[in-house]
C-alpha cells in the first residue's frame, strides 16, 4: 500500500510523524511506501525577508524522511505550491495512493464552521481514504491523542453503499484492530422497519463478519442527530479511531452545506478514518 503523508512542518505534524506507535500501525495495515508532501501557500515566496522557507522545508522533510525510513518505509518527498487540500489530493491521485494521512490539532466547532482547516477541506474532497491523526490542542509541545491508530475502532453506518465501502476497510485494518463498536443512528422520524431486518439485526450480521477475524465486537443502535450521536458514542466508548464513509457532494453543496463526515472530522476528540466514494464517482 502507498500512503500520502501531508505535513505543514508544524509541531502537530512533527508529533504525528515521529510517533513510532502510529507509524507501526500504518505498517501493520500494509503501508510500505510513503509520499511525504508539504504545500507552500501561493502567497509565500522564498525571497521574503527574514524567512528561510526553503531551508526549513528541506530540513524538515529530510528529518521526517529519515524517521520514516528508519521505521521501514520507502519514502519519497514532494514540495508543491498552491492550496493545501487541492495539492495533497493531486499528489494522492498522481502516485495512485491508497490513503492520505494528515495530522490535525483540530479547532473549536465555531472556528471550523467559519474558517475551515486543511483536514476539514480534505474531508470534503479527498479522493482516497483519509486518516486524520488527532494531536493535542493548545500544547506547545503536542503529542498524538491516540497512539494506536486502529486498535479500537468505532464504525458508524447508515447501511448505505458508502458505509459498506468503509466497512470493507476492515479487510486490512483487522491486522491492527482488536476491538470494534458498530453504531447505527436512527432519526426520530425513521419508521420501524417492516418485513426486513432491524438495524440491530443488520449490525449483528456485520459483527459476525468481524468475529471471523477475532475482533471483539459490540453493537449500538441510537436515535437522534447522526453527527451528535456518533460524537457521543466516541466519548462513551473511547475508540482510537472513528471509521465512516463519506457520500461526497457537488462543489456547490460543499460550499453551502456541512455533512456528518465533515462534522465528525472537525469535532472528534480522537482519530478519524474517512472513506470517500470511488474516484470515478
Automatic annotation (TrEMBL):
CDD domains xrefs: USP-like (cd00293)
Domain called UspA: residue spans: 3-132, 150-276
InterPro entries recorded: Rossmann-like_a/b/a_fold, Universal_stress_UspA, UspA
Pfam families tied to this protein: Usp (PF00582)
UniProt family annotation: Belongs to the universal stress protein A family.
Protein name from the UniProt record: Universal stress protein UspA
Species this protein is from: Halalkaliarchaeum desulfuricum
Classification of source organism: Archaea, Methanobacteriati, Methanobacteriota, Stenosarchaea group, Halobacteria
Amino acid at each position: 500500500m502507498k500512503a500520502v503523508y501531508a505535513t505543514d512542518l508544524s509541531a502537530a505534524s512533527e508529533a504525528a510523524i515521529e510517533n513510532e506507535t502510529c507509524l507501526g500501525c500504518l505498517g501493520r495495515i500494509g503501508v510500505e511506501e510513503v509520499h511525504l508532501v508539504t504545500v507552500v501557500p501561493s502567497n509565500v515566496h522564498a525571497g521574503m525577508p527574514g524567512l528561510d522557507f526553503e531551508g526549513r522545508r528541506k530540513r524538515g522533510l529530510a528529518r521526517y524522511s529519515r524517521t520514516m525510513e528508519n521505521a521501514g518505509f520507502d519514502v519519497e518527498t514532494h514540495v508543491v505550491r498552491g492550496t493545501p487540500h487541492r495539492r495533497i489530493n493531486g499528489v494522492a491521485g498522481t502516485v495512485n495512493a491508497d490513503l492520505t494521512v494528515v495530522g490535525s490539532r483540530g479547532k473549536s466547532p465555531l472556528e471550523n464552521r467559519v474558517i475551515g482547516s486543511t483536514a476539514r477541506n480534505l474531508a470534503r474532497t479527498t479522493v482516497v481514504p483519509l486518516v486524520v491523526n488527532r494531536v493535542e490542542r493548545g500544547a506547545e509541545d503536542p503529542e498524538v491523542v491516540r497512539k494506536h491508530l486502529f486498535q479500537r475502532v468505532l464504525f458508524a453506518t447508515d447501511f448505505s453503499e458508502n458505509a459498506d465501502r468503509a466497512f470493507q476497510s476492515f479487510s486490512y485494518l483487522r491486522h491492527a484492530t482488536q476491538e470494534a463498536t458498530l453504531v447505527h443512528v436512527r432519526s426520530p422520524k425513521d419508521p420501524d422497519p417492516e418485513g426486513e431486518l432491524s438495524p440491530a439485526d443488520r449490525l449483528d450480521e456485520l459483527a459476525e463478519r468481524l468475529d471471523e477475524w477475532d475482533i471483539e465486537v459490540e453493537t449500538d443502535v441510537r436515535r437522534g442527530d447522526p453527527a451528535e450521536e456518533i460524537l457521543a458514542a466516541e466519548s462513551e466508548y473511547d475508540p482510537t479511531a472513528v471509521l465512516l464513509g463519506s457520500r461526497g457532494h457537488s462543489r456547490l453543496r460543499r460550499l453551502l452545506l456541512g455533512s456528518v463526515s465533515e462534522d465528525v472530522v472537525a469535532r472528534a476528540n480522537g482519530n478519524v478514518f474517512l472513506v470517500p466514494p470511488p474516484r470515478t464517482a
